[in-house]
Design goal:
- It contains 5 helices and 2 strands; from the N terminus they run ββααααα.
- The protein is mainly alpha-helical.
- The chain has a single domain, classed as Arc Repressor Mutant, subunit A.
- Strands 1-2 form a two-stranded antiparallel sheet.
- β1 and β2 form a beta hairpin.
- The longest helix is centred in the middle third of the chain and has 17 residues.
- It is globular.
């Protein structure tokens, strides 16, 4: 399967995750978010960028608890909740945030809250 973004053909799996995370850029993120019917508001974009940065540095997707720790340290425990994450990504952190961030499909179930 493939998607077309700004004249580029990009391979995706049957769920829309990129086959090659190196093909990710902000245009791809916006395209995938649009397919997920999500607007990339600042709060979503911050999580997408966190996932992307972690993936780039570690070649792995951060577990949800890693994201919650980041949010707790930056905004306090009121924001670092499963409810907050699901409000931003109603179909799940692993299914939507990681897809928009251009990672391969996460294999661990611990990613979703």
């Amino acid at each position: 399967m493939e998607i077309e973004v700004n004249g580029r053909t990009i391979g995706v799996d049957n769920e829309g995750f990129l086959l090659d995370p190196d093909e990710w850029d902000m245009d791809v993120a916006h395209f995938i978010a649009q397919q997920e019917k999500l607007e990339l508001i600042d709060e979503r974009m911050e999580i997408v960028q966190f996932v992307r940065d972690h993936y780039t540095q570690n070649q792995s997707v951060p577990e949800a608890r890693t994201l919650l720790k980041y949010l707790r340290e930056k905004y306090g425990k009121e924001t670092a909740t499963r409810k907050y994450i699901y409000r931003l990504f109603p179909y799940g952190y692993g299914q939507q945030a990681c897809k928009i961030a251009g990672t391969r499909k996460p294999l661990k179930l611990m990613l979703d809250l």
